[in-house]
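Hello forum,

I keep getting stuck at the same step: I have a sequence, I want structure tokens, and every attempt I make locally crashes halfway through. Rather than fight my setup again tonight, could one of you with a working pipeline run this one for me? It's a single chain of 502 residues.
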Amino acid sequence: MSPSPDQSPDQSADRSAAFSGHVRALSIPRLSGTPGRDRAAQYIVDTLTRNGLAVSRMPFVFSTAPIVFLKLAGAIALALVIAAIACWAEHSPLPFVFSVGAFAVVGLASVLVRFVILGNSFDTAQSDGAANAPDAVPHTVPAIAQSRRPSLFLRRLGRSLASRLGKRIRGENIYACLKRECRRAPTARPQTGAVTDGTNARLLLVAHYDSKGQNMSISTRIAMAILGGVGLLFAITLSALNLVPSIAPAADVSGRYHMAFALASCLAFASLLILTTDNSSPGAIDNASGVAVLLDVAARLSAGGALSGTGLEVAFLLTDAEEYALAGAAAFVGGMRAAYDDAAAVASTSERTAAETGGARYRRTFVLNLDGPGAGENYVLFFKRPCGTASADREEGQAWADASDFLRVLNEAAVKESIRMKLRRRLIGAMADHLPFVWEGIPAATLCGMSGTIGLVHTRGDEPARVSEAGMRGAAGFALRVVEEMAARTLPSAVTTRRTSS
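Reply #2:
Ran it on my machine without issues. Output:
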């Protein structure tokens, strides 16, 4: 189980020094693709190695395509809203048509950007001699089974957009696990008709280590996103009422209100167009504090022998390029997907049974992402049901059951650690690294600190002095408690398989 939360004053002082030391060392501008990012990566690798973990560096190449795509969609929506304002006339259908068109563009872009993100990872073999794929690190990378994936057409479209838009940048994820717990990823899946009932599971603890500065704080950006959505919905409602003479407000009244709400949405779309990304923020809260928590958890688990005698494997993923629309997490998920696709191809052509291959075990993967826990002692847990099921070989609805079990574990851990945590499905105007896993059918959540200092994120004011040590301690205790709860539920037995009825 996890190390006891009861500590001597000396141990507590040592942890305080470790937290502050990690935050100070990592609080440098470290936008992906810059020397600061390289320094942060080396510090993380050195720290994990010193604590006895097996570490793999996983280079990848990504593009700024998701950001360019969203800006193009914002420009189109802005033009349509301006057209709706310009052509306002009593009982005219044009304002309604243009307003609905703007709403459709925003909605379509919010759906398609998922596929652009998932397709935003390119082979690094030509430039780096390695790829974010399982062959580069065969002892660590887990394989995920294909979920009930969305349309292949949308995936190809997202991949095409990612390859054509934006500039390409080199990134690097860092993957680590306890040496005694590392196992080779599955090399095959059970033959058709076999169901894996094994209890072995993997908990992946994630934190992004890059930072970015912007000309708008994250709190302002979220406010603009809400303003844009609300303004556009009211503009659509008023333009719809304007079409029905019997219920339409007076022309001058409805025209004024429509213009006010439409201008509010214009302001939001314009703010997206002028949003810039630079290397100015030290990123102490976002996300040196999350990396510090992850390093603390890794050190404690490595020193405590926490997982011996259990069927739980704990791994650590430090993602790069989270600030470029989750590129690092998407690249890692892409590597997991490729591992499964290769394994499935081997299994489909092999005459050996699942038992003979020895690699047929499907290891359930669960993800806990730490993003900005140093903002304070109040937390929000972003949790969304995974898309589809986590394995084509598992019974219908099994992934949903696993997701419910995982959420139950997270809630119990929060209660036992006495931390104040609210549950939310999404954060409007922002994304986090758990989403690419969710889109692939893997139960995942993000723990985020929430307080007044969250407004400093993506600004020069995001400095070590603003980080709450109590917030980091609370997040570390929560993560260790999750490990303890999951280990207690995961038996160290080999996989058993049974045949489904044909």
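The first strand starts at residue 53 and ends at 63. If your local run keeps crashing, start a new thread with the error log.
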